[in-house]
Amino acid sequence: MTLIAPRVAAALPADEAQKLQYALHGSDDITVFVDGTVHRLPSQARDAVVDLLARFSRGEAVTVSSVEEMLTTSRAAELAGISHTYLRNMTDRGEIPVEYRGTHRRIRLADIMAWLEKQKKNSTADGARDHGNDGAADAS
After folding, report:
1. What is the rounded distance in angstroms from the CA atom of residue 50 to the CA atom of residue 57?
2. 10-42 confidence digits (pLDDT tens)
3. Residues 72-100: pLDDT tens digits?
4. φ and ψ at residue 60, rounded to 5 degrees
5. How many Å apart are CA 75 and CA 80, to the nearest integer?
6. Distant-in-sequence, close-in-space partners of 77: CB < 8 Å, separation ≥ 6
7. pLDDT for residue 111
8. 38 and 31 Cβ atoms separated by less than 8 Å
9. What's the pTM value of the predicted model, to 2 decimals?
């Protein structure tokens, strides 16, 4: 397996960032030309390109890297924003599926992304529920 080093791009000069921000304002329609041929990007790729351009438009430096489909627990924990120990405990409880390569755990990127989406939905639902409870308390 070949590892490709991440690519780091410096922030755009302020005037270029401002032009890009203006161009992106209110639009996520990105047309990609490769050797003069128009390519329509799938939604995931389009979203990634828009995010990349938006970061440049805010004057941020950007690092682009690829993620393997099967992740080590350390990489999966990093992507999820949780500790390695917490992730291992979740795999032990069966909350996140895990595969073993010898004695090493590997986690599918899709499983981490699904877990993150579930956390996001639960957080949104909890916030709405808490907000609704505040209103109920006020009506008493």
Report:
1. 10
2. 999 999 999 888 888 877 677 888 899 998 888
3. 999 999 999 999 999 999 999 999 999 98
4. -90, 150
5. 9
6. 83, 84, 86, 87
7. 92
8. yes
9. 0.48
Two structure tokens written together for 72: 């080590």
Contacts of 126-129 with C-beta under 8 Å, sequence gap 24+, read none
Q: Which residues contact 12 (CB under 8 A, 6 or more apart)?
A: 20, 56, 57, 59
- Comparing CA positions, the residue from 85, 74, 80, 78 lying closest to residue 111 is 80
Beta bridge partners of 8: 63
Sole residue written with tokens 């989406």: 117
Residues 6+ apart with CB under 8 A from 91: 73, 97, 98, 105, 107
What residue type is assigned to position 84 of the chain?
Answer: H
